[in-house]
Amino acid sequence: MTSAFDFEARDIAGQPVSLGTWRGRVLLIVNTASQCGFTPQYEGLERLWQSYRDRGLVVLGFPCNQFGRQEPGDEPQIASFCQLNYGVSFPMMSKVEVNGPQAHPLYRWLTEEAPGVLGTRAIKWNFTKFLVGRDGRVIRRYAPTDTPASLAADIERALGEPAPADAR
Predict the structure, then answer these.
(1) What Pfam families does the annotation carry (predicted)?
(2) Across the chain, how many H-helices and E-strands are there?
(3) Active site residue 64
(4) How high is the pLDDT of residue 114?
(5) Which residues of the chain have pLDDT under 50?
């Protein structure tokens, strides 16, 4: 696989989705969890989605229960939580593993393309983010502590347009 658009995943309803559906768009791919100290980042991710989606950004949430068992629910519970508590309307995927032998192929590829600190491939915690350009290549990996708002300038550059004031 040479591009993020070559992968498939299942959406939160369990239906197969080709990431090729978003070919030519900028992707922000995030492993999420509902019971994490970083869970309020859903609000900022939704703000980015609302601000940039018409310009070509797609935020993709991938729930994961590998870090402190902070995503214990099933897909309907996760979808309900995200919508009710944070108004999430960006595409959410089915729960995946991001590390280890059962890691989703997309995450194996992302971590190869954009290793973390000191070259580590493993995802260290919930809300690790990957920005993927319109060409399907990883632009940058962000730590869980990087807030969605702090990504606005990089998203702007990837989109090739100035950031709207409400995204900052």
Answers:
(1) GSHPx
(2) 4, 6
(3) no
(4) 85
(5) 162-163, 168
pLDDT score recorded for residue 168: 47
Amino acid making up residue 21: T
Query: What domains are defined for the chain?
Result: 4-162 (3.40.30.10)
Distance of CA 96 to the CA centre of its chain: 12
Query: Nearest-5° angle of CA 41, CA 99, CA 58?
Result: 40
Nearest-CA neighbor of 71 among 123, 125, 108?
Answer: 125
- Per the CB < 8 A criterion, the answer to whether 39 and 48 are in contact is no
| Residue 6 structure tokens | 């070559």
Catalytic residue among 4, 36, 103, 132: 36
Radius of gyration of the chain (CA): 14
Tokens of 73: 């629910």
Q: Are 152 and 47 in contact (CB under 8 A)?
A: no
Report in angstroms the alpha-carbon separations of 122 from 14, 105, 116, 154.
26, 13, 7, 23
With beta carbons less than 8 A apart as the criterion, state whether 31 and 128 touch.
yes
**Going along 56-104, which residue ranges are E strands?**
57-63
Name 102's Cβ contacts closer than 8 Å, sequence gap at least 6.
none
55 and 86 Cβ atoms separated by less than 8 Å: no
